């Protein structure tokens, strides 16, 4: 029974592919729990030949698939998890390495949890080049996902996606990786995991961290200089994700259910105000009486703006209305 699928994205990756495959083959979990799916984005070096040779030589379950480079990383990752048979997805899209017990520890831990868990993270550490080899170096990054997790998911030192196992069902429900984003798609994906059609106050169990004394994932530090254009595009996408996280946090604090519920409330706002004002013919005496009891007569005023009165909507939702100051 396949429990986890390792999806590896490659493009001219002959210098690090074998290192990744060795770490996958060294996993301590039973071999029938694991499959390896390699998605190649048009490599022109020996990447595909190495992948086929290693998978066949070591009898690893899975296979090699090719994707159109025009699809981008997000499109290739969607091909990978849709091809996978496992309930949990391990994504490796950059040079990294799995600790031998990573999959085992995370699967054992998540087996004790409910189906609401979307992702299980682990502690991780950076790899630095020492001559011709990459060695673990620097402090171990302890992952902590608070509740609500929105701002933590877009923080500068947010854990990499390779440190997590993602539930395949959750990927399907949110539509997979956002293909419209080129650089900050991982952030956007996790934010959509956090905002999935449930009460935002019940988000505590969606992201968990598997306890371990040692790091379970290692990722190489980027040595190449990032072009300014890519930095600018990442900054724009990251800023959009920050605004989304801020809106989700505000909804959480207000006790609203979901983005869909929020949109529904906005669409019904004019009708709510009309009911409060008594202009629809529906019974609204209870709301008006409550408003009268909770507001002094000297301050009982209505907003004159053309848009729906937010004070009245707040009064209806929270059971009280902050009156506008006289004058």
What are the defining features of this structure?
seven-stranded mixed beta sheet; Spore Coat Polysaccharide Biosynthesis Protein SpsA, Chain A; 2 domains; globular; alpha/beta; single chain
Structure characterization notes:
It contains 11 helices and 11 strands. Strand 2 (34-40), helix 2 (47-57) and strand 3 (62-66) form a beta-alpha-beta unit. The N and C termini lie far apart (72 Å). Helix content is 39%, strand content 17%. The chain folds into 2 domains: 4-226, Spore Coat Polysaccharide Biosynthesis Protein SpsA, Chain A (Alpha-Beta Complex), CATH 3.90.550; 259-318, no CATH class. By secondary structure, the chain is α/β, with parallel strands linked by helices. The strands form 2 sheets. It has a 7-stranded mixed sheet, sandwiched between helices. A 4-stranded mixed sheet has the order 5-11-7-8. Residues 197-204 and 268-324 have low confidence and may be disordered.
